Amino acid sequence: MITNKKTANGFAYIEIENKSASARIALQGGHLFHYQQQGEKPLLWLSQKSHFESGKAIRGGIPICWPWFGKNLTHKDLPQHGFARISPFELLESNEPDEHTSVVVLQLQSSEKTLLLWPFQFQLFLRITVGSTLKVALTTRNCDSQSFTVSSALHTYFAVSDISRVSVQGLNKVRYWDALTDQIKRQQGDVLIGEEVDRVYQKTTESLLLRDAVREVHIRPEGSSSAVIWNPWKEKTRRMADMQEDAYKTMLCIETANALEDARNVLAGEEHSLQVTLA
Ligand code: TA6
Question: pTM score, two decimals?
Answer without folding.
Answer: 0.98
